């Protein structure tokens, strides 16, 4: 998986994924029972109106964005609240496969339909979407990978947006909420102890047990950075712990 980047969001009116857009001319697939348009699945339940970015939005499938799209490639992942949870999840393939069922691709068996799973109210809920993604000037508006042929992260974001009620529902959020939705695990929020020397041993034991950890610094103006380069109001994924000796 490759590094992924997220564009800032703008406010928009509410969106309900359960409200149908209408009834386009669709053909049913005898094998899959999916509504197909031009041979590809079209999700009529995903709201495409009232997008946070209104001007010149064009919905395109990955095969219309690049000639050889891939669902998952090799690499790493990171970014803000939703992305910090995805980043932690990507470190554990067995957990990631619960959310992203294996065997999906743009090659064999491709019909424009992708499935994801999220933990909701004590059970795994499957969310089905088509692969149309919002673009502007030929580029993805929201989440995208540094490998421009890779689309798993953008499609995962769309599925999560559908679950929550639309892209605008992801304007604000907390990493532990997304973490619970993608693991089914119990999350805990704590404040860094005043004695920072205790933090290393505390986090080290959690990481050794396989805990997924996110962090953030809210003690400053949003989007400003501290002396270490940490952006206030942003979420980060903790992937390891090292002791560094400085000069006295």
Automatic annotation (TrEMBL):
GO MF: calcium-dependent cysteine-type endopeptidase activity
Pfam families named in the record: Peptidase_C2
Membrane-spanning segments: none
GO annotation, biological process: proteolysis
Positions of the Calpain catalytic domain: 57-248
Any single GO CC term annotated in Swiss-Prot or TrEMBL for this entry: cytoplasm
Listed SUPFAM superfamilies: Cysteine proteinases
Region of interest (Disordered), ranges: 1-27
Annotated InterPro entries: Calpain_cysteine_protease, Papain-like_cys_pep_sf, Peptidase_C2_calpain_cat
Residues of the active site: 80, 234
Family: Belongs to the peptidase C2 family.
UniProt-recorded name of the protein: Calpain-9-like protein
Taxonomic classification: Eukaryota, Metazoa, Chordata, Craniata, Vertebrata
